[in-house]
Amino acid sequence: MKFAVVKFPGSNCDRDMLNAAVKAGGEAEYVDYRETSLEAYDGVLVPGGFSFGDYLRSGAMASVAPITRAIKEAAASGKPVLGVCNGFQILTEIGLLPGALIFNDTHTFISRNEVLTITNNETAFTSGYEKGESVIFPVAHGEGHYYCDDETHETLVENNRIVLTYNDNPNGSRADIAGIVNEAGNVFGLMPHPERALETLLGSDDGMRLFEKMNDWEANHDHIH
Amino acid sequence: MITFTEPTEQDIRNEKLYADMGLTDGEYDKVIGILGREPNYTETGIFSVMWSEHCSYKHSKPLLKQFPTTGDRVLMGPGEGAGVVDIGDNQAVVFKVESHNHPSAVEPYQGAATGVGGIIRDIVSIGARPVGLLNSLRFGELSEPNNRRLLRGVVAGIGGYGNCIGIPTVSGEVEFDPSYDGNPLVNAMCVGTIDHDKIQKGTARGIGNKVIYVGLKTGRDGIHGATFASEELTEASESKRPSVQIGDPFTGKKLMEATLDAIRQPELVGIQDMGAAGLTSSSAEMAAKGESGIALHLDQVPVREDGITPYEMMLSETQERMLLVVEDGSEDKFLDMFEGYELDSAVIGEVTDTDRLELFFHGEKYADIPVQPLSDEAPVYILEGEAPEQDATPYSYGDQNLNAVFDALIGHPTHGSKSYIYEQYDNQVGANTVQKSGFGAGVVRVEGTDKAIAMAIDGKSRYVYADPLNGGKEAVAQTFRSIISTGALPLAMTDCLNYGSPEKPEIYHQLEASTRGMAEACEVLSTPVVSGNVSLYNESKGTILPTPVIGMVGLIEDVNFMAGVEISAGDALYLVGETTKSFAGSQIEKLIDNDIRKQARHIDLKLEYARGMDLRGRLIDGEVKKIAPVGRGGIAIKLAQLSAFHHLGMDVEINLDGEDLFAENASRYIVIAPAGLDLKDGTEIGRLTDEGFHIGTHDLTIDRSIDAISNTWEGAIPQCMTSTD
Question: Where is the active site (chain A) (predicted)?
Fold first, then answer.
C-alpha cells in the first residue's frame, strides 16, 4: 500500500504518521495541502497538529484547502482514510464523519496515556484487535470532546460505528467516544494517537496492529465486508 | 526631508531622554565618545537596548567568566545562540535555557508563550531540529488568587506554543515560595539535535552579500522589551504590557521548517533569530562576529502598518522573525523558498566594508554606528558584594508534630504531583519520548538510533539563600543527580541566573558567591557551561530568592536498557549517602520557621561525582532498577513520592531520629533494587509492599494507606486550582 500523508501548514504529527505507515510495511509520501489529487495513492493519512494554527476553529481552515476535494474523492472511491487528532477534526469539518470536536470539559489541553476499549473490531482498521480489548494510546488535545446530536448518536450505535471508547473519559466526549468510522467503514477518525504507540520502549505498541491492518487493506477489507 | 517627527539630539541631551530608555549619564557620555557626536533618537534607542543587562550582561559578565566552557565534547560554547555538544557519530546536541520572567509577570500567557518561542528559535538558528522542551517555574504560594492566575496563564502559554509548534515538553520543575509573589520566574529550555557539518553561526561576512528578513511582519509590539527585562517590576509595570510580545506558534512552526530548509543551502552565510532587541541585536551581533559592516534599508522591511519609524522598527520585538545573510546572487532562491512556506521575506540590506551599522529609510540615513563598540564595548560594572551575618543557631524539630509536618509537605504544591501542569503539555509528539514528565529527567531518543538524550532542569534557591557558595554547587549537583538517575552520562549544562537587583550589596554577594560555587561544581562534575542567560532586577513586592536554574543534558548510548524494567512489591529500598541535621534552606524550616537561616550547607563534589557515576553504572548494568535523588523535604518526602508515583506501599525502618527524615543533605539517593545488594555508602532500609506506607525511626512512626499518600500527593495542586477565583 502506498499512503499519502496530507501535510497542512501547522501539521506536526506528519513525520510520526509517515514513520508509522512505513514501519507497518507500507510506503508513504507527504502530499502538500495545495495539491488537488490523491489518485496516485492507495490510502490517505490525515495527521495531527494545528492546521493553519487552528486559530479559527480546529480544522476549519483546512476544510477549504485544495486537497480537501481529493480526500473526499479518495473516501468515496473506498480507499482507507485515517484521521488522527487534528486529522479527525478535519474529517468532521469536511463532512466525512458526523459530529464535531469541541473544547475539553476541563478547558485545558490534555496530554497523557489513555486506556481505551476497542468496541468494534469488525472494521478493516480494527480487525487486528479483540472486541472489548483494552489498548493504550496517548492523547494530546485541547478540543477532543466528541459532540453529536441524539439522532446521530443513535445512528452511530445502530450501525456499530463507534470503534473506540475511553475507559476514563478525559474530555467529556459523548458516550466516551474516542473514534468512529463512516457508514462504509473506510474512513476512521480518532482523537488518540496510535502512531505514538508503536514500541513498548515508548510506553505502548498497541497502535502497530492498526497500521498493519491498513497496510493489508484489500485482503482485510474483503474479509470484513 | 525629515519623514518622522522625533526628538532632536539636543532634546535627548537636555531632557535626558536617554535615561527613560535605560542609559545612565555615564553610558550616554560613552556613546558620545564612540560616535564623536551626540546620538540621534534612533541611535540612542539602539545603544540603550544593546547595552541593557539583558543583551550586554554588564553586571554579570565578570561572574560568567568563571565558568568552565570547554571540554572534549564541546563544539560550541557561549556567545552563539546556543551551546553545541558532541554525542558521537557526527551528531551533536544543541541546547539553551532562557528567562521570560518580566513579561510573564504582566501578561502570563503571552509572556510564557513567547519565552518558549524565543528559545526554540535560538536552537533552530544553530541549524538544529528541536526534540525536547523543558521549563523551570517559580510562583508565590497558590493560596493567593494572583499566583493561581499567573500559574494558569503561564502553563497555558507554554502549552499553547509548544503543543502547536509540535515539540514535546518532556520535563520541568516548579516551586512555590512567597518570595516570588508578583514576580514569577519562567525559564524555558530547548534541546535540539544536529549533524556536525550543519552547525551555523550568526555571522555576517562577505562584502556585498545580502541580508534577508523572513517571518512575521514587524509591528509596534515589544518595543524596548530588553530594557523592560532589565528593570525592577513596580506598580507601573502593568503599563509595560505593550512591551510584551505576542506569540504566533503557527508562523513559528512555518518559520522553523523554513529555517531548517534554508540551513541546508550552501549559499547561506549566517543566520540569527530576532529575539531580544530584534533587528538591532541580530544585525549588530552578526556584523560584529563577521567583522563586517552592515547597511539596512528599512523601507524594505515587511511591516504590519504604515508609519512605523526606523526607531520603532529597530526596537520592535515582534516574534517569529529571522535574519539571514546569503551569498550575493542567491537571494531569489531563498525568497522563493520562503514564498513556498507562505512567509513574508525581503532583502533588506547588504554586508559592507565599513565596519559600521548604517540604517537608511527612503535614502535618508537614520543611524551610523561603529559595530564593534556597539556590540562589544558595553560598560561592565564590577560591584561590591557584602556577605550577610551567619546564623549558627542549631536546629531542633524533634518536639514538633512530625506526622503533621509530613502531611503538610506531601500535600504542598512544591512536593505534590505536577500532573496538573505537565498534562497540559504535549509530551510525546515526535514519538521519541522514552521518559516524559512526571518523575525526574526527560529522555528523548535520537531518531533512527539507539541513543537518547537525557535532559533535566533544576534550581535550589533556598539553599543558595542560606549559603550562596555551597548552594550554588548544590544547584548544579542536583541537576547532575537527575541526569545520572536516567543512566545518562552528564555532558554539559546551561544556566539561567535569576536574581534581584545586583546594585544591592547582599544580592551581588549572592550572585558572586553562588556563581563561584557553580563554576567549581561544573569543573568537578565535568559539565562545562555552553550557554546561558541572566535575569536580574527580579524585585516586585520584595526580592526573589537567588535562583540559579541549571539545565543539563546527558547521553545514553543504548536506551533499550530502559525497556521492561518493572518496579514491584518485594523490591528492596536503599538509602545511599549520609544524613545529618542539615536543615538550612530545608522545607521543614520553611514550614515551621517560615524563614531561612543563613547557615553553612555542605557538599563534597568529588564524592558526589564518584557516587553518581557508580550508581549510574549499576543502573545501566541492570543491577539496580531505579535511582531517585533525595531533594526537597528529605527522605520522608522522597519515599512518599515514590510510593504515590508507583502506587505501591513501603515497609521502612531507618536508624535515625524522626526529624532527620526531613533533613536535606546533598548527594543522597533512594535506590530500588533486589534485596541483599552491597551498595557503597548505602543501607537497606526496607521493602516495597502491596499495602500500607510505613516508616519507622528512633522516635517517629509514619503510617498511611497507599491511597492516602497518593490522594494527598496527586491533589496538592488541583485542590488549590479548583478554588473559584
Answer: 85, 193, 195
- This prediction's pTM: 0.95
Amino acid found at B719: Q
Strand order in the sheet with A110-118: A27-32, A2-7, A43-46, A81-84, A187-190, A177-181, A162-166, A110-118, A134-141
Shortest distance, CA A222 to any CA of chain B (angstroms): 32
Q: Report CB contact under 8 Å: A112, B250.
A: no
Task: Report the relative pairing of strands A43-46 and A2-7 from DSSP bridges.
Answer: parallel
- Give B437→chain A minimum CA distance, Å: 10
Angle of helix B278-289 relative to helix B41-50, nearest 10 degrees, comes to 70
Cell reading at B95: 541546547
pLDDT at B44 over 90: yes
pLDDT tens track for B507-536: 999 999 999 999 999 999 999 999 999 999
Is B54 designated active site? yes
The residues of A whose Cβ lies within 8 A of any Cβ of B are: 9-10, 12-13, 15-16, 19-20, 48-50, 52-55, 108-112, 138, 140, 142, 193, 195-196, 198, 200-203
Instruction: Render pLDDT for A59-81 as a digit per residue (tens, 0 to 9).
Output: 999 999 999 999 999 999 999 99
Give the separation between CA A117 and CA B393, rounded to whole angstroms. 60
- Closest to B417 in 3D by CA, of B197, B712, B96, B61: B712
Pairing of strands B74-76, B91-99: unpaired
> Catalytic residues of A, which ones?
85, 193, 195
Q: Which residues of B are annotated as a binding site for ATP?
A: 57, 96, 495, 532
User: B interface toward A at CB cutoff 8 Å?
Assistant: 156, 159-160, 163-166, 248-251, 253-254, 341-342, 419, 422-434, 445, 559-560, 562-564
CB-CB contact of B673 with B625 (8 Å): yes
Q: Look at residue A201 in the predicted model and tell me its pLDDT.
A: 93
Ranges of beta strands (E only) in B643-715 are 649-653, 669-673, 682-689, 693-696, 701-704
Q: Is residue B378 over pLDDT 90?
A: no
**DSSP assignment of B470-507, as one string?**
HHHHHHHHHHHHHHHTTTPEEEEEEEEEE-S-TTSHHH
Comparing CB atoms, the residue among A9, A108, A200 nearest residue B342 is A9
Cross-chain residue pair B429–A9, CB shorter than 8 Å? no
ipTM of the shown complex: 0.94
For residue B678, the SS3 value is coil
- B159 → chain A, closest CA residue: A109
Q: According to the model, what pLDDT value does residue B9 have? A: 92
Q: What is the pLDDT of residue B723?
A: 61
- Is B646 among the catalytic positions? no
B686: left (phi over 0), alpha (psi -120 to 50) or beta: left
Cite the annotated binding site of B for Mg(2+) by residue number.
98, 122, 273, 533
pLDDT on residue B1: 40
- Report d(CA B421, CA B59) in Å as an integer: 34
Strand partners, B273: B322
Angle between helices B706-715 and B402-410 (to 10 degrees): 50
> Closest-CA residue in chain B for A201?
B563
Segment (H or E) for B172? strand B169-176
CA distance A66 to chain B (A): 15
Confidence tier at B22 by pLDDT (50, 70, 90): confident
Give the nearest chain A residue to B433 (CA atoms). Answer: A202
Alpha-carbon gap, residue B364 to B362, rounded angstroms: 6
Q: Which of B164, B165, B260, B339 is best to mutate for the A interface (most A CBs within 10 A)?
A: B164
Query: Do the Cβ atoms of A111 and B427 come within 8 Å?
Result: yes
C-alpha grid cell, residue B192: 535540539
Between helices A208-215 and A217-224, what is the axis angle to 10°?
A: 90
